[in-house]
Write a structure and sequence with these properties.
With about 180 residues, the chain is an alpha+beta fold. About 20% of the residues lie in helices and about 35% in strands.
């Protein structure tokens, strides 16, 4: 009888360990988000499902052109998915022809689906704080992003994670 009780206790601890690990991974390491809308076309499409890494960006920060998920400042139940263009401490400016400048230097990138028609608040230049990022959707003329005063610069505490893998409908790394 003692051996059965020990075996059941061991099994219960093993199951608890598995569920505890799954909970911790889901809470602090990896998450799943569904893309809502066309703002990241052609990189991500409406209704794509992606995995986000919730941990590494906290340890090493984000790099320019990373795709991230962040909470909208005025509705924390709403997530946005955008691409990092400006890093903390930089000044981002978009001229009337749609060219992006970082600290006065033209940004060389090919993520934008089209030329930016409305530079929004970035026309005058936005200097980012020590924990802020300037983000744009890849579908530049169909995106609410850091050019919009309601979105503006994204602070580190708004960020939920770095998008790294599309899992549905097509599987693959997100660049």
């Amino acid at each position: 009888m003692k051996n059965i009780a020990k075996s059941l206790l061991g099994l219960a601890l093993y199951i608890l360990l598995i569920f505890g690990t799954a909970f911790l991974l889901g809470r602090f390491v990896v998450g799943q988000v569904e893309v809502d809308g066309p703002s990241m076309n052609d990189t991500l499409e409406d209704h794509d499902r992606v995995l986000i890494n919730k941990l590494t960006y906290r340890l090493k920060g984000l790099d320019r052109f990373d795709v991230l998920v962040f909470k909208y400042a005025y509705d924390t139940d709403t997530d946005y998915i955008k691409r990092v263009i400006g890093l903390p401490g930089e000044t981002v400016m978009i001229d009337p022809e749609g060219r992006i400048y970082i600290d006065g230097n033209l940004l060389e990138e090919d993520y934008g689906k089209e030329v930016i028609e409305d530079p929004g608040i970035a026309e005058e230049g936005i200097t980012l704080g020590d924990d802020e990022y300037f983000v744009l959707g890849d579908n530049r003329n169909n995106s609410s992003d850091s050019r919009d005063p309601d979105v503006a610069a994204v602070s580190k505490d708004q960020i939920r994670g770095h998008v790294w893998l599309r899992i549905r409908p097509n599987f693959g790394l997100v660049r």
